[in-house]
Design goal:
It is a single chain. This protein is α/β, with parallel strands linked by helices. It folds into 2 domains: 176 residues, Rossmann fold, CATH 3.40.50; 108 residues, K homology (KH) domain (GMP Synthetase, Chain A, domain 3, 2-Layer Sandwich), CATH 3.30.300. Helix content is 37%, strand content 22%. The strands form 2 sheets. Strands 2-3-1-4-5-6 form a 6-stranded mixed β-sheet, with helices on both faces. It has a 3-stranded mixed β-sheet with strand order 7-8-9. A hairpin with a 3-residue loop joins β2 and β3. The longest helix has 18 residues. The two termini are 26 Å apart. 36% of the residues are buried. It is found in: Cytoplasm; Cell membrane. One of its GO terms (cellular component) is plasma membrane. An essential GTPase that binds both GDP and GTP, with rapid nucleotide exchange. Plays a role in 16S rRNA processing and 30S ribosomal subunit biogenesis and possibly also in cell cycle regulation and energy metabolism.
Length: 309
C-alpha cells in the first residue's frame, strides 16, 4: 500500500462501567496491556494501546467507565474520559448488551446523557454492543439494536463478543476504514505508551481486585517505589507499596498469616515476568494513607500518565 493511503488515527473507547472495554482492547491488540476484573471501575486512567499493520496504525484509548460516583478520584477518572474524546478521530462507545436486555430501563439512565452530549458530533462513531455470546437466541437483541440506532442515528452499531473474539476482525477492518490518512505516529513494534512501571503497578492492583471480595479495592492504590535491574542475578527487582484508606483495610489486604498478600505477590510476579520477558523479584508493603481518595495531589499523581499527543 502506498504511503499516501496509509491511515493513522486515535480511537476513544468509552461507556458505562463493566462493559468490557479493557477486554475488547486486549483482544483487538492480541496482547494484554490493561487490567481486567469482574468489578466495575477497574480502569482509572487513559490507557493507550497501539495496533499497527501494513494498512494502518490504530491508537486506542481505553478510558474509565462513565458513572455517577462522587469524590476526587471519580472526577479525575471522568476527566480522563473527556480528554480522550477531545483527542479522538473515531469515537467508540462500548456497551454491555446482556445488562440492557435484562434491564432495558437502565439504557436511558446510562446512555441518554452520553448520547445527548454527542448528538452534534460529526466524527465517525462506532457503537460496540458487547457480550453477545451470552445470548443463544440473537433475536432478543433486536429491540436493543433498534433503540441504539434511534439514540445514535449517524453511528454504526456493531455487535461483538470481546471475550470470545467474535466479530473482532470485521470490527477492526471497520475501524481502520474510518481513520484519517496519515503516517504512523509510533514505531511498529510499540503496543502502548504506558511506562512498564505503571503497567507493573496495574498488574498488582488487578490481583488485589481479584483476591478481595469487599469494597476495599476501590480504596487501594499501588505505587512502585523502587525499580532496579540486577544484572548479576539476571532479574528485575521491584518494590511496590499498596496504599489503603483505612487502618482496618490493612489487615484485609495482608490476610491471615499474610495469605492474601502472598497470593497477590505470586500472581503479580508471574504476569510481570511475562510483561518484561525475564525474572522478577517482587516485594510488597501495605501502608495506611487515610482518605487518600480525597487527596487531590495524590490522586493526580496516581492517575497521571504522560501526554503522548
Amino acid at each position: 500500500m502506498t504511503a499516501q493511503h496509509y491511515r493513522c488515527g486515535w480511537v476513544a473507547l468509552m461507556g458505562p462501567p463493566n462493559a468490557g472495554k479493557s477486554t475488547l482492547l486486549n483482544a483487538l491488540l492480541g496482547q494484554k496491556i490493561t487490567i481486567v476484573t469482574p468489578k466495575p471501575q477497574t480502569t482509572r486512567n487513559q490507557i493507550v494501546g497501539i495496533h499497527t499493520d501494513e494498512a494502518a496504525q490504530t491508537i486506542f484509548m481505553d478510558t474509565p467507565g462513565l458513572s455517577q460516583v462522587r469524590g476526587r478520584l471519580s472526577k479525575a477518572m471522568l476527566q480522563a474520559v473527556w480528554q480522550s474524546l477531545n483527542q479522538a478521530d473515531v469515537i467508540m462507545p462500548v456497551l454491555d448488551s446482556h445488562l440492557y436486555i435484562r434491564h432495558p430501563e437502565y439504557l436511558e439512565r446510562d446512555l441518554a446523557p452520553v448520547a445527548e452530549a454527542l448528538a452534534s458530533e460529526e466524527r465517525p462513531m462506532i457503537v460496540v454492543v458487547n457480550k453477545v455470546d451470552l445470548f443463544a437466541d440473537k433475536s432478543r437483541m433486536l429491540p436493543l439494536l433498534t433503540r441504539l440506532s434511534e439514540m445514535w442515528p449517524t453511528a454504526e452499531i456493531f455487535p461483538v463478543s470481546a471475550l470470545m473474539k467474535d466479530g473482532l476482525p470485521a470490527l477492526m477492518e471497520l475501524v481502520r476504514s474510518r481513520l484519517p490518512e496519515g503516517e504512523a505516529q509510533f514505531p511498529e513494534d510499540q503496543i502502548s505508551t504506558a511506562p512498564v512501571r505503571f503497567m507493573a503497578a496495574e498488574i498488582i492492583r488487578e490481583k488485589l481486585f481479584l483476591q478481595l471480595r469487599q469494597e476495599v479495592p476501590y480504596c487501594i492504590a499501588v505505587e512502585v517505589e523502587h525499580w532496579e535491574e540486577d544484572e548479576a542475578r539476571g532479574q528485575t527487582v521491584i518494590h511496590a507499596v499498596i496504599y489503603v484508606a483505612r487502618p482496618m483495610h490493612k489487615g484485609m489486604v495482608i490476610g491471615k498469616g499474610g495469605k492474601v498478600l502472598k497470593q497477590v505477590g505470586m500472581e503479580a510476579r508471574k504476569d510481570i515476568q511475562e510483561l518484561l520477558g525475564g525474572k522478577v523479584h517482587l516485594e510488597l508493603w501495605v501502608k495506611v494513607r487515610e482518605n487518600w481518595t480525597e487527596d487531590p495531589a495524590f490522586v493526580q499523581e496516581l492517575t497521571r500518565i504522560e501526554e503522548v499527543r
